[in-house]
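Field reference: sequence -> structure
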Amino acid sequence: MSRIRGGGRRTAASDLESMAVLVQHLSALLSGGRGPAQAWHELLEFQRSEASNPSSDQPDVSRTLDLGFLAAAAQAAALGESPALAIHRRVEVCRCGGTSLAVTRQWARLAACVHASEISGCPLAELLTRFALDLEHSADAERSRQTALAGPRASVALLGWLPFLGLGLGLLLGVDPVDIVLRSPIGGLSGVAGLLFWVVGRVWSARLVHHAEAGA
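Structure field:
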């Protein structure tokens, strides 16, 4: 089974990839002949053993969330109840507790797959395989978006420091821009206007990058 990359740093892509691995594992257990209750139980025990492994690359927060959802599903399956309903209830609790919307959304999608299998009789393993593939594609797309946004982020940071680099360059050339700003009324107004435009530019650039991330 593949492992989560990223050195334990939790990102949207790593969350998607973590979920894909978990879904693939559940699909493999069901394809191997396990019943639903046994499959959920074995998956829960495996994730618990991974959580106790200090060398695991998956972030602690992500592992804890997975265990909570899996424990609810495994308990429901053992009692003959619907794991999908148990996951949905857990999703609502996590949403009220401020858990990441992206994480709860993926678990809600898993619950939808389980529910679709329960009401239609479609093999759950096949649905999970397709769901895992979709998660992997989403993780790849998220990494591509982050790579594409790395350039604009670097440009924002560079442009934000250019005015201060200009002041330093002026000092090196023998001009004292600080003295001009402090002693000249026009220089003071220019300094205040420049500072105002610098703040507006920083805020505006940050918002552009944020909207690009949200809309990607």
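Note: The two ends are 29 Å apart (CA to CA).
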